[in-house]
């Protein structure tokens, strides 16, 4: 303890320590807010945009961006900023369950080869589906999904497939939460969503008929842990509504999801 600190009363030293901890917490919160400004719809930003989305002064945004650049989390292109590869590396390590993506990719490639449609792998995270992998080809329609991106679980076949085999508390958090309307076909009624989950549980697949994007339809099947009986992830096949063949795609998907469930359990 230095002489200055020794001269302080116990109450003053406690307040000094608390103030210092508060400042560090506030700085960490602002740094995370700056990182969070780069969501999937805002991949490249100027410092003013970062400041606005993170709700911090422009000078603070500039200072924190410099720190993040030094540590490899952000890169600068002229007067614009984007996330650096180090963020993806950390995100990849955080994906659960471990090894799922590596096991799933060969099955996904086979599904794409058989159907020539877009194939997704996703997990449930905070009421959203988090995309772990995406395989698509030349004839695939525009599909607003990216690896590492998210969509509300209630509006996607992937989310409903996972929820159909999830614990009641996980289902309740989604069903009783905000059911945002992404298109005119999005299910925003709680009773209707529960009926959709019941159907998915009975049939082994869930559907998204233009609920997340007009012109796109999707069928998904859960990947289930045989020890718990709960879904750990889901696979989906997406196609334009005009050529969507639910029966054909669902049959292929169930087979692959069942095989992955056995491997991952």
UniProtKB/TrEMBL annotation:
Membrane-crossing residue ranges in chain numbering: none
Domain spans labelled IclR-ED: 86-265
The protein's name in its UniProt record: IclR family transcriptional regulator
Record domain HTH iclR-type: where: 25-85
Organism of origin: Pseudonocardia acidicola
Transcription regulation as UniProt keyword: yes
A Pfam family matched in the record: HTH_IclR
UniProt KW keywords: DNA-binding, Transcription, Transcription regulation
């Amino acid at each position: 303890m230095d002489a200055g600190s020794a001269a302080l009363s116990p109450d003053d030293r406690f307040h000094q320590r608390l103030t210092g901890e508060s400042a560090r917490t506030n700085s960490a919160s602002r740094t995370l807010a700056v990182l969070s400004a780069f969501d999937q719809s805002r991949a490249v930003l100027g410092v003013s945009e970062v400041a606005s989305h993170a709700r911090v002064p422009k000078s603070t945004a500039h200072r924190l961006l410099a720190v993040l650049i030094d540590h490899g989390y952000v890169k600068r292109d002229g007067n614009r900023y984007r996330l650096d590869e180090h963020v993806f590396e950390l995100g990849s390590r955080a994906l659960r369950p471990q090894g799922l993506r590596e096991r799933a990719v060969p099955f996904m490639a086979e599904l794409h080869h058989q159907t020539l449609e877009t194939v997704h792998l996703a997990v449930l995270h905070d009421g959203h589906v988090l995309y772990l992998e995406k395989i698509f080809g030349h004839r695939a329609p525009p599909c607003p999904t990216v690896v590492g991106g998210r969509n509300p679980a209630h509006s996607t076949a992937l989310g409903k497939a996972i929820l159909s085999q999830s614990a009641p508390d996980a289902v309740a958090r989604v069903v009783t939460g905000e059911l945002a309307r992404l298109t005119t076909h999005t299910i925003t009624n709680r009773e209707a969503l529960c009926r959709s989950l019941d159907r998915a549980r009975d049939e082994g697949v869930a559907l998204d008929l233009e609920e997340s994007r007009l012109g796109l339809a999707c069928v998904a099947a859960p990947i289930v842990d045989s020890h718990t009986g709960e879904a750990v992830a889901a696979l989906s096949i997406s196609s334009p509504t005009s050529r969507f063949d639910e029966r054909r795609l669902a049959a292929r998907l169930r087979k692959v999801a069942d095989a992955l469930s056995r491997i991952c359990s």
